[in-house]
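pls read this protein.

:::
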Amino acid sequence: MQAFRRSIRDVLRDNSANAMVVSAFALFAMIGGAGLATDTVQWTLWKRQLQRMADSGAISGAYALAGGASANAAATKEFGRYSYITLSGTPTVQTPPTAGPHTGDTGAVRVVLTTSRSLPFSSLFMNNTPTITAEATGAVVDFGDYCVRSLEPGTTTGITMQGSAIVNLGCGMHTNSQGSPAVVAGGSSTITASPVGAVGAIPSSNNYASGTLLQPYSLKQPDPYAGLADPVVPNGCSPKINIGSGNGNGNGNGNGGNNVVNPGCYRGVDIQGNATFRPGTYIIDGDFKLGAQARVSGDGVTFILTSNNVASSPYSVGTLKINGGAEMDFKAPTSGTYTGILFYQDRRAADAGGNANIINGNSSSVMEGAIYMPAQEVNFNGTTGFNTTCFYLVSRRVSFSGNSAIDNNCTRFPPPDMTGVQVRLVN
């Protein structure tokens, strides 16, 4: 027994044995630290990959939602690109989300993904594999206020500003054109408008004022008047309205008199003299022309350009021509089906090229309301002083020339929904 005790004392007094024990513990700590570091790096990588997958799914779902497609189908297709990630269970794709800050938002898509994978080192001590969760929400959000919108669906340039045009807008403009370029600001034109957006390309240009926000390759914007029904030409339209400049004899047919026009259907409008349009809706089966001597007014009026033969002959739909010398004071109605709309051209009209519809304004003219011509181009040529304090332009394409100024400060009637939208990760 005494011999055993002496042996224990000898071991305890041996410094080399202590060093071995300490070294053993240190080595264990080093191996554990290295293993934990390896697991941490691996876990972080898996978490990052899973989050990227959730983000991509949420963004794809939101883009599909903006285009009227299935958010679930778009997100699921996007998940297929991440074949190197094995998910635990079925991915969660919600629209609208049932949790989070965007709960109930019909413009949002929430994605929740989980994966469960063993870690090389930690699995030696853990009975259950750790679960990694990633969540993302994509949403269609408002971005930018527009008063000019081009609905061009193809690759033709949607918005053109050339020559010496001075375009001064208190708002932005956008085109759905996929062209390259989709917007042109050339010549010696000067453009003060922001933002300027397009589905296609927008080349940079010194023609834009400092601070202009360009938004190339942005989301397709909706037609704000898509819900309007196609016009119908009634039976028994009245003959074309022809009002000449006359000789000033005061008989109601010349400059010395005034012609009062009632709402209804007419086979066209060609005015060179004075006319007052009473409040209401005017169906025009033909062209609408205001000559250089025209002096016209109308409060609460809407002019609808269409054709009785539009189904078989889309080129028969009338166009709008306003001469620069014409003086007009037109205001759209404040209530009813055509609230806020001055001119509505049948969307079934054929694309008639660049000079189909021409609006030449002057300092003695007022236009309050929207020009809606979704199938054709509008050439807008304003002058200094042309009163467009509440004016919106929605057409297939738009071309600016002259001194064009638009201020969408509407107080007369609710403005159309021209707020731009884009897709963002919001959570």
In short: The chain has two domains: 2-129, 145-422. Residues 15-66 form the longest helix (52 residues). The two ends are 73 Å apart (CA to CA).
